[in-house]
Design brief:
The protein is of the alpha/beta class. It folds into 2 domains: 120 residues, Rossmann fold, CATH 3.40.50; 185 residues, Dihydrodipicolinate Reductase, domain 2 (2-Layer Sandwich). It contains 9 helices and 15 strands. Helix 6 crosses helix 7.
């Protein structure tokens, strides 16, 4: 049994505790948090788990194999570093850290110690998201033109990072997972309405190799919870609504055709002279129900017990932080397009 210490019992921590506790391959040995009320709630729900406010007590325990970190972003580096130095494998929630330098340092430390460092980019463990990647790999959509990604809600409003660092990390990792590439340039604009100096809404454009564009809308100041993604290809188009649990994917047999290459024989305007629109059927691919976070936690255990290669390794976390850093630079410089250096 893999012995796990979970650090952070706030918004997301209890979900991680639950998944590692109910796995047949792991058990939670410690839950660490500074809030006594949170620890009391954990102790009531998971009476076999030891709770404490002292991180050193958990990380210094030779019986602990792995540390799972679900604390504010600003604390990730120090906690993950100390866990790696103690010889523990680490799963840390997104984003990996709040800077490129500290993220790179964690990657190098994990590699030097031969330890697994994985980042909680949970959407790459979503069955529907994996189906999208398969459609792209199978050339079902044809050449990808662009991806539009909307991730909004009303709260929770953060004071430690802007909306891009809080929300867009998911979409950056997902777009890169689908395209098997990282953006080369980014530009972004945003608005600071609630807390001075912190963008509550961010609109960012990412340029990928091959001329592919991805546009991100991230906001915690919106009346509607949206997790809407559109992928537009040369042959077909696809929509992914993560809020729709019954039918998250729709494959649209729609495209723009060159009228001189077999499109419509009759055109009625100069605008439609060169092109015509093909409107085919809409297909809802069946996606087997699964729990993305459970998939992520089980994959982390695979990496520890079966030497599996992480789908979201530390280096992917570093790349996402590099993109987020470029977005922040563009925000600070009035939307200037910024080069992204990955690696």
């Amino acid at each position: 049994m893999i012995q796990v210490a979970v650090v952070g019992a706030g918004h997301w921590g209890p979900n991680l505790i639950n998944n590692f506790e109910r796995s047949s391959r792991s058990e939670v040995r410690y839950v660490v948090d500074r809030d006594a009320k949170r620890l009391a709630a954990v102790a009531e729900r998971f009476p076999s788990v030891e709770t404490c406010a002292d991180f050193d007590r958990a990380v210094d325990d030779a019986g602990v194999d792995a540390v799972v970190i679900a604390t504010p972003t600003s604390t990730h580096f120090d906690l993950a570093r100390r866990a790696l130095e103690a010889g523990k494998h680490v799963l840390v929630e997104k984003p990996l850290t709040d800077s490129v330098e500290s993220s790179r340092a964690l990657c190098e430390l994990a590699e030097a110690r031969g330890l697994t460092l994985m980042v909680g980019h949970v959407f790459v463990y979503n069955a529907a998201a994996r189906r999208v990647r398969q459609f792209i790999e199978d050339d079902e959509l044809g050449r990808i033109y662009y991806i539009s990604m909307v991730r909004t809600n009303l709260g929770p409003i953060r004071t430690d990072v802007n909306a891009a660092w809080d929300l867009a990390a998911h979409d950056i990792s997902l777009a890169s997972y689908w395209l098997d590439a990282w953006p080369t340039q980014v530009s972004a604009t945003g608005g600071q309405f609630i807390n001075p100096g912190i963008d509550d809404v961010v609109f960012a454009t990412l340029r990928f190799p091959g001329g592919i564009l991805a546009n991100l809308h991230a906001s915690w100041l919106n009346p509607r919870k949206s997790r809407d993604i559109t992928v537009v290809g040369e042959k077909k188009m696809l929509t992914f609504d993560d809020v729709n649990l019954d039918a998250p994917l729709r494959l649209h047999d729609k495209q723009v055709e060159d009228s001189e290459s077999g499109g419509a024989a009759l055109v009625d305007s100069f605008h439609s002279f060169r092109t015509s629109v093909h409107l085919g059927e809409v297909f809802e691919p069946r996606v087997e129900p699964s729990e993305p976070l459970r998939n992520e936690c089980e994959h982390f255990l695979d990496c520890l017990t079966e030497s599996a290669i992480p789908v979201s390794p530390g280096r992917s976390g570093l790349a996402v932080v590099q993109v987020l850093g470029a977005i922040s630079t563009s925000l600070a410089e009035g939307g200037r397009e910024v080069e992204v250096e990955i690696g």
